């Protein structure tokens, strides 16, 4: 929709080209340059993190055994109804 007035002034939603160009110049931020050394350092950090992740087991079997033993010894109280309620609320069920 074009908004104009009867006096023939330009539309308020179409700035003249000089003010638009000035506005664009003011809002453009300088783009940081990344050197080859930075890219190499980043790649090495990513590869090291990936290798550490690959060495980490999917499941911490020792921790699972520890929790299982604590449950069996009664050191941890487990309330299945409370857990079910939390799951229902999380997935959009009724409280």
UniProtKB/TrEMBL annotation:
<dbReference type="InterPro" id="IPR007412">
    <property type="entry name" value="FlgM"/>
</dbReference>
<keyword id="KW-1005">Bacterial flagellum biogenesis</keyword>
<keyword id="KW-0678">Repressor</keyword>
<comment type="similarity">
    <text>Belongs to the FlgM family.</text>
</comment>
<dbReference type="InterPro" id="IPR031316">
    <property type="entry name" value="FlgM_C"/>
</dbReference>
<comment type="function">
    <text>Responsible for the coupling of flagellin expression to flagellar assembly by preventing expression of the flagellin genes when a component of the middle class of proteins is defective. It negatively regulates flagellar genes by inhibiting the activity of FliA by directly binding to FliA.</text>
</comment>
<feature type="domain" description="Anti-sigma-28 factor FlgM C-terminal">
    <location>
        <begin position="46"/>
        <end position="84"/>
    </location>
</feature>
<keyword id="KW-0804">Transcription</keyword>
<dbReference type="Pfam" id="PF04316">
    <property type="entry name" value="FlgM"/>
</dbReference>
<feature type="region of interest" description="Disordered">
    <location>
        <begin position="1"/>
        <end position="33"/>
    </location>
</feature>
<keyword id="KW-0805">Transcription regulation</keyword>
<dbReference type="InterPro" id="IPR035890">
    <property type="entry name" value="Anti-sigma-28_factor_FlgM_sf"/>
</dbReference>
<feature type="compositionally biased region" description="Basic and acidic residues">
    <location>
        <begin position="17"/>
        <end position="28"/>
    </location>
</feature>
<protein>
    <recommendedName>
        <fullName>Negative regulator of flagellin synthesis</fullName>
    </recommendedName>
</protein>
């Amino acid at each position: 929709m074009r908004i104009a007035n009867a006096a023939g002034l330009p539309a308020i939603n179409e700035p003249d080209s000089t003010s638009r160009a000035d506005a664009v110049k003011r809002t453009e931020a300088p783009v940081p340059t990344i050197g080859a050394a930075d890219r190499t350092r980043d790649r090495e950090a990513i590869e090291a993190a990936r290798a550490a992740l690959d060495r980490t087991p999917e499941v911490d079997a020792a921790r699972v055994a520890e929790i299982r033993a604590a449950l069996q010894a009664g050191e941890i109280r487990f309330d299945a109804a409370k857990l079910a309620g939390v799951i229902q609320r999380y997935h959009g069920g009724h409280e």
